[in-house]
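Following up on my earlier thread - several people asked me to post the actual chain instead of describing it. Fair enough. Here it is, all 153 residues.
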Amino acid sequence: MLKNMPKYFTYRFAIDQINKAIDAGFFLEAITIEESIIVDRLYRFCKDNGLTKSASLATLGTVETFLKKLPADIQQIEQIDFLEELDSFRQKRNTCLHQIAKSDPGEPTMPFDEFIDLAGSTAIEGRVLMKKISNWAKRYKRKIASNSSGLTG
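Reply from S.P.:
Thanks for posting it. Predicted structure:
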């Protein structure tokens, strides 16, 4: 299995940015990059299993909905044990990205301290989830590689 070196370097940069952003308190940047990596890591599996959207149009909601609709036996065989964490991250991400400035007319936004606490915890939880899904995606990639090499041998 050949490594995609340009993608590897892009991911290294993205992960460094996540860590720097969290350390500096730029939680929305970390959350946004984490989401991008999570979607990218899940996309190949979804595409291999029937998702018809292109990578550029796939969103966190797209891949999450696709995975949830898979039969339970496939979820179990593929060890997709992160759907609750994925849904929680998606919901918290939505709150963080929208509540920073959005509220009903005449109503205040979320209290700032509450927002910062939520954004910080979401960024940290997102980093953990991103690592979990990245490890899962590596196992899936190895499985696909070993299955395809078994077919040619």
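Residues 17 and 23 are 10 Å apart (CA to CA). That should answer part of your original question.
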